[in-house]
């Protein structure tokens, strides 16, 4: 069996979910389940004017690739895509897209969920807030809940 | 003495005031923790950036490492706060 | 707060995931996470030529609506979409689409997963296989594993 | 006697040979289980369709019900195998 194709991109531009799903499923009739996750910039009840995403070029791609390969192996994914944007983004904008394909639904759900949990805690990206009241933007703090979400995947 | 490229991100970068620099390290700087101590000892912006040393994350040659990791042979060491992507 | 919009459709035609996500997110900047699930017709290693999906008109829509409303309430979803096709479909074709939107990622994952588990076991659809060897098609049997997947959502 | 519309799906429909029918039911047919017994007693295609009575699912007025559910007031009763959608 050919290795599962893993498609990683770190980019400033937006992405198109339909295009990415089509690329992942093209010419295949063995996929039974495709789960996508998109993370969007929220306006925080009007308090946020924009987010700025900083990243570590090179390591960001490498780390996301490692996470996706882990997910492919662990859940038997047939294909995985992960796209993370950087730069400024306004409320409503896409930040991240993860796609996991598998023969059956639970593997696809678990694969996408696993990739997101590790992406949150291990991929070198940092978010800074710009607030509508004009106050100086703060770097968003990492959440213990995100570490807990990652740690539930620990084995044995 | 060894030469290492340091890169900083997020508020570590902002507090230090530059995104990267090349430093000569004394021979007794063996681990990431030693490196953080050494940088803090320079005072000023470094003391501010690494005040809460235990929250600082490190990567050697673009892979995450613990503070106990030896830095021998590192081409690039990155220091940054916990990540908040996704 | 306005009730979460729930969009249910049972249709013969295919669907477009990008169009459905855009409809669900339109003019909103409070959504942080969108999870989609698409179920596709697999070729079963070349043994399957087509699937035929029979449904109970009226009850199919009503049952999917009940499931989605349960998910909205239980996981605090901001919006949910569920589209189930009927009729004949070839390997590679879309069968079902579920979308769940929430402020945070785990609610969106759980919402879509919950909807799929109940859709599998409670929505009145039945699949018949047509095989490439020309043998008479069989109705697919329900799986105990699907009941187990549903039962993990039982509370207390 | 009461009149009820019955609808069948999947292999229940195929074995009975029609998708729906209207039947007069005797007064002693009170629950879904009674209805299944009554239909089986008609023999032939009904006996074949409801041979494994415990796997048959039922809906009254388009809502799932258990076999013990009374059918009084039902406009439409559907009988079908376990569902396999999604």
UniProtKB/TrEMBL annotation, chains A, C:
UniProt catalytic activity: 2 [molybdopterin-synthase sulfur-carrier protein]-C-terminal-Gly-aminoethanethioate + cyclic pyranopterin phosphate + H2O = molybdopterin + 2 [molybdopterin-synthase sulfur-carrier protein]-C-terminal Gly-Gly + 2 H(+)
E.C. numbers: 2.8.1.12
InterPro entries: MoaE_sf (IPR036563), Mopterin_biosynth_MoaE (IPR003448)
Keyword Cell division: no
Feature: compositional bias, Basic and acidic residues: 141-156
Short name of one Pfam family: MoaE
Pathway annotation: Cofactor biosynthesis; molybdopterin biosynthesis
Region (Disordered): 129-156
Broadest EC class assigned to this enzyme: transferase
Protein keywords: Molybdenum cofactor biosynthesis
Subunit structure: Heterotetramer of 2 MoaD subunits and 2 MoaE subunits. Also stable as homodimer. The enzyme changes between these two forms during catalysis.
Family of this protein: Belongs to the MoaE family.
Main function: Converts molybdopterin precursor Z into molybdopterin. This requires the incorporation of two sulfur atoms into precursor Z to generate a dithiolene group. The sulfur is provided by MoaD.
Protein name in the entry: Molybdopterin synthase catalytic subunit
UniProt organism field: Sinorhizobium medicae
TrEMBL record, chains B, D:
Domain of life: Bacteria
A family per Pfam: ThiS
Protein name: Molybdopterin synthase sulfur carrier subunit
């Amino acid at each position: 069996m050919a290795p599962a194709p893993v498609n990683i991109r770190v980019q400033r531009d937006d992405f198109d979910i339909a295009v990415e799903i089509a690329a992942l499923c093209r010419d295949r009739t063995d996929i039974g389940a495709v789960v996508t996750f998109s993370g969007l910039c929220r306006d925080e009840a009007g308090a946020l004017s924009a987010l700025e995403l900083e990243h570590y070029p090179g390591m960001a791609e490498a780390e996301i690739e490692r996470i996706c390969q882990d997910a492919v192996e662990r859940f038997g994914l047939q294909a995985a895509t992960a796209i993370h944007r950087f730069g400024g983004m306004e409320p409503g904008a896409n930040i991240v897209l993860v796609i996991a394909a598998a023969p059956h639904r639970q593997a696809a759900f678990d694969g996408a969920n696993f990739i997101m949990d590790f992406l949150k805690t291990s991929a070198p990206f940092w978010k800074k807030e710009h607030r509508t009241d004009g106050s100086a933007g703060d770097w968003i703090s990492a959440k213990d809940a995100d570490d807990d979400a990652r740690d539930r995947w620990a084995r044995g | 003495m060894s030469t290492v490229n340091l890169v900083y991100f997020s508020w570590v970068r902002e507090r230090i005031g530059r995104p990267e620099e090349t430093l000569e390290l004394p021979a007794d700087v063996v681990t990431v923790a030693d490196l953080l101590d050494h940088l803090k000892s320079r005072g000023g912006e470094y003391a501010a950036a690494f005040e809460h040393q235990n929250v600082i994350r490190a990567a050697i040659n673009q892979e995450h490492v613990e503070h106990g990791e030896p830095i021998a042979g590192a081409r690039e060491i990155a220091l940054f706060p916990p990540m908040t992507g996704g």
